[in-house]
């Protein structure tokens, strides 16, 4: 099975923000990614707007609606009141809830579903009322009980946090072990009716193993490694390389 690829634009926005100038253009690069066959665009607007700015969201929504109506907009973040307002305004196809602290450099863990059950139930219900698919960034390798709670709070999907997997790039045995654990978790999640996404520190090299272990991987969202490759190969060619690594057939 092939996974869909959503291109995370945070790293492009971070490069743009080095100067008070509009390039590289977040929507311009997003357009190249979608034209090369990415299935969607992901943004993770952090409260300090150090990467994606809140003002980036409307043009990305417009780009998708006007030129790529089958693509998906995925907005990630901590469900603060401000975040939920942004989501309501820019109407993504998918909202991925992440337990980030504003001081974090990047996401380094997912939800403990047991500890945040009440809050997640409330937020998932609100997001469903507004018509959004909800994915919950999952901590570690969740066990069956944690996955049952994720389902019970109303998640449509979970996103497996692949930071520890990405960190094994020099260690084949560790990579195989973690991919196997994630694969078994994904199977349980699927049996409970949860879709499975994955993300963080994925690369063109580590994706094929993950795709092999997670039969029903719906989508991967990738920013850092993909942007690094785009400097070398260009965005369009990079998207094609990552799509192949996702198991997609690419002309
Ligand atoms: C939720 C997640 O996994 C992150 O990878 C995130 O979207 C990346 O965010 P930054 O690019 O801001 O580090
Ligand atoms: N959800 C993960 C994501 O969007 C991108 O993470 P990374 O590839 O920038 O580590």
UniProtKB/TrEMBL annotation:
EC class of the enzyme, as a word: transferase
Record: residues binding 3-amino-2-oxopropyl phosphate: 8, 19, 201, 223-224
EC number: 2.6.99.2
Site-annotated residues for Transition state stabilizer: 159
Keyword Cytoplasm included in the entry's annotation: yes
Pathway(s) annotated for this protein in UniProt: Cofactor biosynthesis; pyridoxine 5'-phosphate biosynthesis; pyridoxine 5'-phosphate from D-erythrose 4-phosphate: step 5/5
Compartments, as annotated in UniProt: Cytoplasm
Active-site feature positions: 44 (proton acceptor), 76 (proton acceptor), 200 (proton donor)
Keywords annotated in UniProt: Cytoplasm, Pyridoxine biosynthesis, Transferase
Catalytic activity: 3-amino-2-oxopropyl phosphate + 1-deoxy-D-xylulose 5-phosphate = pyridoxine 5'-phosphate + phosphate + 2 H2O + H(+)
Primary localization class, coarse: cytoplasm
CDD domains named among the record's database cross-references: PNPsynthase
Coiled-coil residue windows: none
Binding-site list for 1-deoxy-D-xylulose 5-phosphate: 46, 51, 106
Assembly and interaction partners: Homooctamer; tetramer of dimers.
UniProt xrefs under HAMAP family: PdxJ
Family per similarity comment: Belongs to the PNP synthase family.
Reported function: Catalyzes the complicated ring closure reaction between the two acyclic compounds 1-deoxy-D-xylulose-5-phosphate (DXP) and 3-amino-2-oxopropyl phosphate (1-amino-acetone-3-phosphate or AAP) to form pyridoxine 5'-phosphate (PNP) and inorganic phosphate.
Record protein name field: Pyridoxine 5'-phosphate synthase
């Amino acid at each position: 099975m092939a996974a869909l690829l959503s291109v995370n634009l945070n790293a492009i926005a971070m490069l743009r923000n080095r100067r008070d100038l509009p390039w590289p253009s977040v929507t311009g690069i997003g357009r190249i990614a979608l034209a090369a066959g990415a299935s969607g665009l992901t943004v993770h607007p952090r409260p300090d707007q150090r990467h994606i700015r809140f003002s980036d969201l409307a043009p990305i929504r417009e780009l998708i609606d006007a030129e790529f109506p089958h693509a998906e907009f995925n907005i990630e973040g901590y469900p603060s009141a401000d975040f939920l307002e942004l989501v309501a305004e820019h109407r993504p196809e998918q909202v991925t809830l992440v337990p980030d602290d504003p001081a974090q450099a990047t996401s380094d863990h997912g939800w403990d579903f047991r500890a945040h059950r009440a809050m997640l139930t409330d937020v998932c219900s609100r997001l469903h009322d507004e018509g959004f698919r909800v994915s919950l960034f999952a901590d570690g390798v969740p066990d069956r009980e944690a996955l049952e709670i994720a389902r019970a709070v109303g998640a449509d999907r979970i996103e497996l946090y692949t930071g520890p997997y990405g960190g094994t790039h020099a260690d084949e045995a560790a990579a195989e072990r973690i991919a196997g654990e994630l694969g078994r978790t994904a199977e349980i999640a699927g049996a409970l009716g949860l879709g499975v996404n994955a993300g963080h520190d994925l690369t063109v090299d580590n994706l094929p193993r993950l795709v092999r272990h997670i039969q029903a991987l719906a989508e991967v969202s990738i920013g850092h490694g993909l942007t690094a490759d785009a400097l070398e190969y260009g965005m369009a060619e990079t998207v094609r390389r990552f799509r192949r690594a996702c198991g997609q057939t690419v002309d």
